[in-house]
Predict the 3D structure of the following.
Amino acid sequence: MSTADVVIIGGGVNGTSTAFHLASLGAKRVTLVERRHLAAGATGKSGALVRMHYTNEPEARLAWESLQVFREFRTIVGGECGFEPMGFLALVPRGHEAALGRNVERLRRIGVETRVVARDELRAIFPEAALDDVGAAAYEPGSGYADPNATAYAFAAAARRLGVTIETGREATRIVTDRDRVVGVETDRGRIDTRTVVLAPGAWGATLLRPLGLDFGLVPHRVQVTIFRWPDGFTRRHVVVIDFGHMAWFRPEGTNATLIGLELGVGHEDPDHFHEGVDEDYVARCKATLAARVPVFGASTMRGGWAGMIMMSPDGRPIIDQVPSVGGLYVMLGDSGTSFKTSPAIGRCLAEWIVHGKPRTVDLTPFRSTRFAEGQPWVDADGYGGEHLTVSR
Ligand SMILES: Cc1cc2nc3c(=O)[nH]c(=O)nc-3n(C[C@H](O)[C@H](O)[C@H](O)COP(=O)(O)OP(=O)(O)OC[C@H]3O[C@@H](n4cnc5c(N)ncnc54)[C@H](O)[C@@H]3O)c2cc1C
């Protein structure tokens, strides 16, 4: 048996970010356990878009705080996160112009560098794209994408340098409580006594939550992406795009390819037995969707693809909380496919909560676990109509 002041369960980007931020704030005796290897879950498969365009303020604040970390990663964390500030476009179909305008205003009020762009400027930003069906577009010149594996490994390396113990190949099998408070974590390699647990298990949380009587209605969901080699004549690394009209998102991959994901609705899949490759019909749909927006991609070549598991919450927003019914239990659950870009701020907020007694960087009240039981699931006033959107919500 061993002891720790804090045990973090899960070595994805949210677990490793929390580990780094805890150690940065002076927490001692922090142990992270990861049942496989770092970034073995959604993180290692992430599209890793880093954009601020959300249709609500709390998530945008997390993204905005996180962007400062991606920009200055070498100084703040150390190592590389692979951030590529290619610029970002949100394209919405006709009928959503006013909502886009209100979302941009909301983002600007919190400091995000973004604006609604007129058609001429839009054409200049993405000259290869067919844009006639677009109702309105918002542009973020400083956003882009990062390398999700590099980010998680760099957070972990920095945490280790600050004294955190990171144990891969070690699975948490039970969170032990006594009179409704955490007293330890059982693992496949013995028990760790602790009074504070951060649970960041991605799509694999059910077996630890159920014995605690916690059911937040989480659904593990498989998400695919495909990469297409640029066709002859296409040589420019383009902006990152969320195409709400086509329910798709895409970004450059390396120096000669584009990575695309489509929104297909949400269905339950077993996170321990899922097909990690990409479905053939999905590839065809991706190519058709990409070509509908950027016609030269009709001649592109499929270069590969994969599938990963995310965990959807009932309202598609993460649950980031100190669970009121279990003292000492902090959770980052229901990532809903959008929690790479926000991971620096999520980790910092959880660390602040544990070390200072409350989160200071962003108010996490909207992310509370009790919102479903309260009958107050999250609904954005200015959404673009895609209730089942995951990565590109
Ligand atoms: C294809 C795809 C594209 C995406 N694109 C984007 C995007 O463009 N932008 C964006 O912001 N987000 C995106 N996401 C979502 C983003 O990747 C996730 O929200 C984020 O990586 C979640 O990180 P996490 O640390 O919370 O969970 P995970 O990365 O899933 O990590 C959880 C870890 O916990 C470990 N674990 C689970 N149970 C236990 C246990 N009992 N004991 C020990 N370890 C355990 C797992 O092995 C895993 O390594 C995408 C996701 C996918 C799959």
